[in-house]
Structures are given as structure tokens and as C-alpha cells.
Amino acid sequence: MATLSDDDEGKDVVTAGGEKIGIVKEVDRGTAYVDPNAGLTDELKSVLGWGDRDEDTYPIKADAVAETTDDELHLDRGR
Predict the structure, then answer these.
(1) Which of the two residues, 48 and 27, has the higher pLDDT score?
(2) How far apart are CA 36 and CA 47, in angstroms?
(3) Which pTM does this prediction carry?
(4) By CB neighbour count within 10 A (0-12 exposed, 13-18 middle, 19+ buried), where does 59 fall?
(5) Strand order in the sheet with 65-68
(6) DSSP β-bridge partners for residue 67
(7) Residue 37 forms part of a structural domain
(8) What percentage of the chain reaches a pLDDT higher than 70?
(9) What is the CATH number of the domain that holds 65?
(10) CB count, 10 Å around CB of 45?
(11) Which residue segment(s) compose the domain that 70 sits in?
(12) Which residues pair with 26 in a beta bridge?
């Protein structure tokens, strides 16, 4: 599990399979709020538990993040 902070804002969010799914817009209390890519499929949104929401960002908790690098958050294989 990674520790998320304000330093992670602006990083790309990448699935375990290497697919870029969005960008971190904000981090608040260990949760990254992600602005998804416009082309993100409904199937992938369902896997991430995002469903049909009208909001601009979607939450990803720190326990779903396997690793952070200088430019990316890599999701755990279970996500």
C-alpha cells in the first residue's frame, strides 16, 4: 500500500496492466481523486467501482495503489 500526499497531484493513474486511466486532481486524507480519461470504458469503470456518476473525479484509496513513482500511481493488481 502506498502513502498518498499532495505531491501525487498531477500524476497519471495506471492500471496493473499498464493502461492510463486518468490524472490525480486532488489528494485528501489518503484518497486520490482522479479525473478519468474521456475514453475510459464502462467495463473498466465498473471494475474500479466507479459506476455511473455525474461527478468530475472518482476516489482511489491508498490501499488500491501498489506503487507511486515520480510521474505515476500504479494500481494494485487486484484493482
Answers:
(1) 27
(2) 14
(3) 0.77
(4) middle
(5) 58-61, 31-36, 20-28, 12-14, 72-75, 65-68
(6) 74
(7) yes
(8) 73
(9) 2.30.30
(10) 16
(11) 6-75
(12) 33
Is position 1 within any domain?
A: no
d(CA 2, CA 75): 10
CA distance 29 to 5: 8
Output the pLDDT for position 38.
59
Contact present, 46 and 16 (Cβ < 8 Å):
no
Looking up cell 475510459 gives: 40
User: Is residue 67 within 8 Å of residue 6, measured between CB atoms?
Assistant: no
Is 53 within the bounds of a domain? yes
> Does 58 map to a domain?
yes
| 76 CB-near residues (< 8 Å, 6+ apart) | 16, 63, 64, 65, 66
Which residue bears the cell 482522479? 34
